[in-house]
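Hi V.,

You were right to ask for the full record rather than a summary. Here it is.
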Amino acid sequence: MKFKEKAKILSSQDIKRILHRLTHQILEKNPNPYELVIVGIQTRGVYLAKRIKEIIRKVEDVELPLGILDITLYRDDLTMIGEVPLVKETKISFDLSDKVVILIDDVLFTGRTVRCALDEIMDFGRPKRIELLVLIDRGHRELPIRADFVGKNIPTSKKELVEVRLTEIDGVDEVVILEKEEDG
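Predicted structure:
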């Protein structure tokens, strides 16, 4: 299935501005940064988490623990994504007990990825609270999940894709909407 770019939603500068705003919202809601831990969902959520961690370090002069989650083995559609799914690294090398986990992902869509992430986090301990931060909320939830911190709400059709591109992987920071190309 082929997709073509329909619209550019966010530029590099927009993403930078949004991440600073979201970081300040986290710090306003959580005045004790020593209770915080940052956990990014593979793949782009990890890079967003690293950026937010760095902003907090500059603003609060605090070095927060950073965890990485790969939810592949927690997916409810694991048998549908291929015979040998690509499993990436999960790394949480710190105690989650009595911590506020800031769970970070790039796009919130059906809510299924977040549900998997919540299940996996609970396997590492019992945090005080889990708060969800997403760069983009595109709607179409299938589960009763909402983000605590949202960079931008982008209403989409189910025929569209929201693609977050980050310099660390894609060579550019931007968010675009892709639509299916018509056959023929």
